[in-house]
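From the methods appendix. Each design record in this collection lists the tokenized structure first, followed by the designed amino acid sequence. Records were kept in a plain field format so they could be parsed without special tools. The example shown here is representative of the layout used throughout.

RECORD:
FOLD TOKENS (179 positions):
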């Protein structure tokens, strides 16, 4: 009896498979290919270029007897004495200024490569430190409708105690990337 039940069950399974396959018998006719076309587009933006409008110039000082720290506001070019007894005597302090040019409304980001630099006295080896570079707004900006964005950069100057007189120079690197 067991063998009959197994035969009956396997016969039912075969019948069920055959019934499922019946709707597909006779449908195996020739296949017709269909085609469609698609467009390919690309927008090529020009790269971002940059020009320097002005250098970072801290002005003129009389050295003090202790180290003095001055910080320049990147928006106004105003100097703020943080500590020490050196004296700022003018000389037209000016924030650095750079303008990026490119495709209008492109997102750009400015960075200063160095966190600090040492500026060196012309004709000598004496140095002063410039650090804490600051921007006049956010680093990430969009070029305006004419394709421009201008950044101003201030920083902090450390005038050493009894700093040797002379003109001190150094270079910092600015990069403007488009995103």
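DESIGN:
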């Amino acid at each position: 009896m067991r063998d009959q039940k197994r035969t009956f069950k396997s016969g039912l399974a075969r019948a069920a498979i055959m019934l499922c396959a019946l709707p597909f018998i006779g449908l195996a006719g020739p296949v017709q290919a269909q085609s469609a076309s698609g467009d390919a587009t690309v927008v090529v933006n020009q790269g971002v270029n940059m020009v320097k409008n002005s250098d970072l110039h801290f002005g003129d000082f009389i050295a003090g007897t202790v180290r003095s720290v001055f910080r320049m506001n990147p928006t106004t070019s105003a100097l703020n004495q943080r500590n020490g007894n050196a004296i700022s005597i003018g000389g037209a302090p000016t924030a650095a200024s750079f303008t990026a040019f490119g495709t209008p409304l492109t997102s750009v980001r400015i960075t200063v490569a160095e966190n600090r630099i040492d500026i060196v006295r012309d004709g000598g080896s004496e140095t002063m430190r410039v650090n804490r570079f600051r921007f006049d707004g956010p680093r990430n900006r969009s070029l305006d409708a004419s394709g421009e964005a201008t950044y101003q950069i201030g920083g902090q100057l450390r005038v050493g105690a009894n700093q040797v007189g002379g003109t001190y120079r150094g270079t910092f690197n600015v990069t403007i990337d488009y995103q």
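APPENDIX NOTE: Residues 20 and 107 are 60 Å apart (CA to CA).
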